[in-house]
Write a structure and sequence with these properties.
Layout: E1 4-10, E2 24-29, E3 32-36, H1 42-49, E4 58-60, H2 66-69, H3 72-81, E5 88-91, H4 97-104, E6 115-117, E7 124-128, E8 133-138, E9 146-151, E10 155-158, H5 160-165, H6 171-179, E11 181-182, E12 185-186, E13 191-194, E14 198-202, H7 209-215, E15 220-224, H8 232-238, H9 243-253, E16 257-261, H10 271-279, E17 285-288, E18 294-296
Parallel strand pairs: 3-4, 4-5, 5-6, 14-15, 15-16, 16-17
Antiparallel strand pairs: 1-2, 1-18, 2-3, 7-8, 8-9, 9-14, 10-13, 11-12
């Protein structure tokens, strides 16, 4: 059975706390796994969350600040130690190539797995597979930063009432789906377009065009909300978002499930992030991320 869910490995910004590890997020997308922003301690959080190195097909790093990338060394070495049987691709800002190389070869180890480096230098598609297209958009942060977006190809949803109207039932349904036409009846005659699911990942950034482009129409938006609204000046100065700003983006973009994360250690009450997100009028599903949380991607 296909599984599409976000496994949250860490949710702290800059400084970990007793209850929050540095960043780390694994998106399970059917049989694929995409690891976003592995901060320090990610390898241990994977163990606690039941995530194996074999689950990783891609690594996407938004930028090279330590809380988003210092776990790369351990994760890459674990991929090789466990002899993951498939190639792994790493995406990261091209301007941070030297940081990636330092982390990849931070210590001696035996390389057993093909790790393809695919740095990001501009907005646009990074990979096109049967399951999804992966795109990147530039964000606004003191160092070069990119957000990521997965878009599933549109499909078709079979409508039972239309099948019945054409007298199609039993094994003929499968035959029609496989062959596209049966006795003059096409798949289009008995179905409607099912828009593919969309997932967006937005970390350290001020409000900018890239934030809105990534969020547009997302079924799930994972987005930083480092600060509360009363500290909006700090957020802007340091290249971050507030809870209200992030939720307003989600509201305007028609996001179905909003996941707020990357919280400053200065705040002790997570409920305040939810209150401020609701105060701007976001009325979709809302999760205030906690370490080791699993969040299903909303079904279409």
């Amino acid at each position: 059975m296909s599984v599409r869910e976000l496994v949250v490995l860490g949710t702290a910004s800059q400084v970990p706390t007793r209850h929050r590890n540095h960043n780390g997020y694994l998106l399970r997308w059917d049989g694929q796994g995409i690891l976003f922003d592995p901060g320090e301690g990610t390898q241990r959080q994977m163990l606690r969350a039941g995530v194996a190195a074999h689950d990783i097909d891609r690594i996407c790093v938004t930028h090279f600040h330590g809380d988003h990338s210092l776990g790369l060394a351990g994760v890459i070495q674990r991929i090789n130690l466990d002899q993951v049987p498939h190639p792994v691709t790493a995406h990261y800002p091209a301007s941070g190539q030297h940081f990636f190389e330092r982390l990849r070869y931070a210590t001696a180890y035996r390389e057993t797995v093909k790790l393809a480096e695919a740095p990001v230098a501009a907005d646009g598609p990074l990979a096109v597979t049967e399951a999804y297209t992966l795109d990147a958009c530039r964000l606004s942060h003191p160092v070069e930063s990119y957000g990521y977006r997965l878009t599933e190809p549109d499909g078709r949803r079979i409508l039972p009432e239309r099948l019945a109207a054409h007298g199609i039932e039993g094994p003929d349904v499968g035959r029609l789906q496989r062959e596209g036409v049966l006795n003059g009846v096409t798949v289009e005659d008995v179905s409607e377009v099912r828009r593919g699911q969309r997932f967006a990942f937005v970390m350290d950034t001020r409000l900018c065009d890239g934030v809105h482009a990534l969020a547009e129409g997302a079924d799930m938006l994972v987005i930083e909300s480092t600060f509360l609204d009363e500290d909006v000046r700090l957020a802007t100065d340091h290249g971050h978002l507030t809870a209200g700003q992030a939720a307003a983006v989600a509201r305007d973009a028609g996001v179905r499930h909003l996941v707020l994360t990357h919280f400053s250690q200065r705040y002790s009450d997570p409920a305040e992030f939810e209150r401020q997100a609701r105060a701007v009028g976001f009325d979709g599903e809302l999760s205030i991320a906690q370490d080791l949380m699993r969040v299903p991607v909303p079904k279409r």
